[in-house]
Amino acid sequence: MEKRVATLPLTHIYALFYNIFVALYVGIEVIIMNKFTLHEFTANIHSFRATACHIVPPIAVKLAKEIGSNIHDFPSLREWRSSAAPLGRDLTKSLQLQWRVPVQGLYGMTETTAVIALTDRGNLTNPSGAVGRLAPNLEAKTVDGELCLKGPNITIGYHNRPEANAATFDAEGYMHTGDIVQVDDEGFIYVVDRMKELIKYNGFQVAPAEIEDHLLHHELIQDAAVVGVNNFSRSTELPLAFVVPLSGSVGHGECSAEEMANIIMEYLAARVSPHKKLRGGIIFVTAIPKSPSGKIMRRQLKDYANGKKESLPELKVLRFGAPVPPL
Q1: 204-254 pLDDT per residue, tens
Q2: AMP-dependent synthetase/ligase domain: from which residue to which, for each copy (predicted)?
């Protein structure tokens, strides 16, 4: 029988659907934690012999970066399941390599009753980074890369919000998700990023999640978030990274902030197209602010990067200067 350790807030549709609705319907044992700590989470997996755990990308980062692994500690664990935000291919591979446990992507929204795409439970070798194939009874189309859906599990609209409904639902009845996706020849869906979070650089669209995935693969980076910073002289946005360096890697003898910034920029430049370089620079911080459901507080970070320091009064910036590469 499947057994899960639940650490995500049950006020979020992802945790509510899988750890309450589905678990009760199917008959799955769920161990519910009051709050997440990495030590308690991993201890519960071991103690209760969990077979599967639903996580979000920030937890995946901690599992891949902050803890040593021993496959014999979790002999019962069969898979991780990740949702709520895109889990990049590099991070997926790192997590699988670290724990030797497959990572399955899930994809849904509150407006879709938590389900958009599903993975085949009998096939744990789905493509890295994929969130599965379109769920049964759903119709889909893409408009300029945005996924649009129609089906019985889609909300009929937002209560007393006619403007939001007009912006979300088109004349054919499709709901516009606001997610940019890619679909391969076998029907697997890959979530690139949210439309509203894309950085517009000189006419190019830059997906923060893609850059973050590359950064998180670097051995000296603990965590990262990418936003667009306004450059009024060029009338464009520039990609800027907030980076949490690995403890002791910056300013403690190993390398200076400027040296590490150059290392990161050169590392990224070798892996992405020119318009995706960190032309806005790097800000080293002690932690990336995230919501209770694990999503990066990107709007507040963007406001902070654009001079509105009051948007994140508790953000602790490591007072290092990071060079800004030429435009």
Answers
A1: 889 999 999 999 999 889 999 999 999 888 789 999 999 999 876 665 556
A2: 5-159
**Which of 251, 270, 273 has the alpha carbon at shortest distance from 203?**
273
Neighbours of 316 (CB within 10 A): 9
Antiparallel, parallel or unpaired: β 236-245 and 281-284: parallel
> Residues 251, 252, 253, 258: what is their CA dihedral angle, to the nearest 10 degrees?
-10
- 5 DSSP β-pair partners: 31
Q: Strand, helix or coil at 213? A: helix
Q: Rounded to an integer, what distance in angstroms lies between the CA atom of residue 34 and that of residue 10?
A: 10
The residue ranges of the chain whose pLDDT is under 50 are 72, 320-327
Q: Give all domains of the chain, ordered by start, each with its CATH number.
A: 3-106 (3.40.50.980), 139-192 (2.30.38.10), 198-311 (3.30.300.30)
Cα–Cα distance measured from residue 106 to residue 119, given in angstroms and rounded to the nearest whole number? 7
Q: For the whole prediction, is pTM greater than 0.90?
A: no
